[in-house]
Please model this.
Amino acid sequence: MLQRLAGVCVAALLIALCVAAVGRADDKKDDKKKAKDLIVGKWEHTKKEGDVEAKITLDFAKDGKFTMTLEAGALNFNVKGKYKFVDDKNLELTLQDPQSKEEKTEKVKVVKISDKEVEIEGKGMGDKTEVTKFTRAK
Model:
């Protein structure tokens, strides 16, 4: 009786290990999708500041160009630029400052990315580093 119980426990443990290994293999398939492929498309972030709702849209094209649109009350503007991945987690954005017309390059970090969401860490207001979560536009 005790041997049979031990055999059942070992069999259950082996099944659990196999299921866990299969689950990790599926996770690795998702990890193989490179950030540079996943970033392509339109992403949105909405934030409410007091009475004003601000919407930021990022549109990354396959050819390395992007457009950023900001809509906040009466304030609306578009910025066009170029992007490139320095490595799997770091993105370099080159854009023209809408006021000074100077070309600037900013480095941001892709903290997390999937088919549905991307989290980007970069400088916010006052050079404070912050993470912004975008969802894929429908």
Summary: The first strand starts at residue 41 and ends at 49.
